[in-house]
Amino acid sequence: xxxxxxxxxxxxxxxxxxxxxxxxxxxxxxxxxxxxxxxxxxxxxxxxxxxxxxxxxxxxxxxxxxxxxxxxxxxxxxxxxxxxxxxxxxxxxxxxxxxxxxxxxxxxxxxxxxxxxxxxxxxxxxxxxxxxxxxxxxxxxxxxxxxxxxxxxxxxxxxxxxxxxxxxxxxxxxxxxxxxxxxxxxxxx
Length: 189
What we know:
mainly alpha; single chain; 10 helices
């Protein structure tokens, strides 16, 4: 039985575009330190191509680690986080939960790149939430809460702790709140 963190291929294609958008927002943080390293940019482009149905999941599953290796080519924590955002986006072809990982690393990169702005992480999360359409929200709501299901990246581990865990928790809480407000709006008066 597949992990609930996998999502169907249709749902993975939906959330892949959003994950690519999140990762692309902080790509300049990586490229300012490694302007000739195109691995994160390529991973984002391939994630978009996967989302459009131009690439198959099997091929992208084999390539998903390429962008992550770019994190070793940079020094600053912000640039490392930006590379990891692209790597997480590329991982969506394999498992849908990586979309939340892409968003979390992107928000972390935004915060690290702007230490003078204490609200930078939250501002990035607000932007990410505003980019979701209803189909993306519906697909992401299918994922288990961060830290509860050990069968994937949202399990109790790296994505469940620190800034990453806080960002994912914030996104998941907003998704639930959006569902609640939709239900209230649909209730008879």
